[in-house]
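Response to reviewer comment R2.3. The reviewers asked that we include at least one raw input/output pair. We reproduce the pair for RNA polymerase sigma-70 factor here without editing.
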Amino acid sequence: MSVSQTEWEQHRPAVFGAAYRLLGSVADAEDVVQDVWLRAAQADLDDVVDLRAWLVTVSARTSYNLLNSARARRESYVGPWLPEPLLTGPDAAAPVLVDESVSFAMLLVMEELSPPERVALVLHDVFALPFDEIAEVLGTTSAASRKLASRARGRIAKARGRQPPSKAETAEALQAFKAAAQAGDLARLVELLHPEAVYVADGGGRVTAARMPVHGGERVAMLAIRVVLQARPDSIELIELNGEPALAAHRDGALLWVDTVELVDGRIVAIRRVANPEKIGHI
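Raw output as returned:
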């Protein structure tokens, strides 16, 4: 017997969640979801004990096969590449599995992992799959899969460093950044930004955006003011992306960009702006 519609709707967030964490793209993850649905609808699942684990495994195997081609596409990407933001919270159209592993900062760290490390980490630490099943996805041994996940954890711990701020702290920093940028208050922006702050914009060659990261609190502050003056957004609102507060700028009903930030000691150390229409059209 194949999967029922009720069972599919129950497990679809996990299928999408595995693909999105592995690929960092909403569009690619949705393609994987469709592939998994077609396979599940045609498969004989009578002998499957854990349907969720089976679906997540198929999702991961399909995503794993796409990872190398996805990385190749990023090498020819125009300007900095950032993960495709995922709308979460009350505004999300469909249920989303949200935890620390789906945060923007974590997705960027996972981009530094090898595809096998990423698969082993996500399947074991997020979806609690045993290493023998992960080994089947990767075509390796259970012991090797365990080592891959352990190595990935170590690299992530080293990259992340300190404890991330609360949602309230992030929202407060974003609101202050928004107010200062709209007011053209350079002094206030410099105060909010860490001296070593970096601004990374992903326009994908589709819209005007910095082709290289901008470093230094004062330079980032001046750029933030200049972009607001040039783009003239009607509104900049607080939303939730990837389980964390973010800003969304609109003009004439169209979404111009979304911003996420990282904080260190209460100051903004990184601003990541996604403006590529292909990446934010679903928000």
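The mean pLDDT is 93. The CA atoms of residues 16 and 33 lie 6 Å apart. Further pairs are available on request from the corresponding author.
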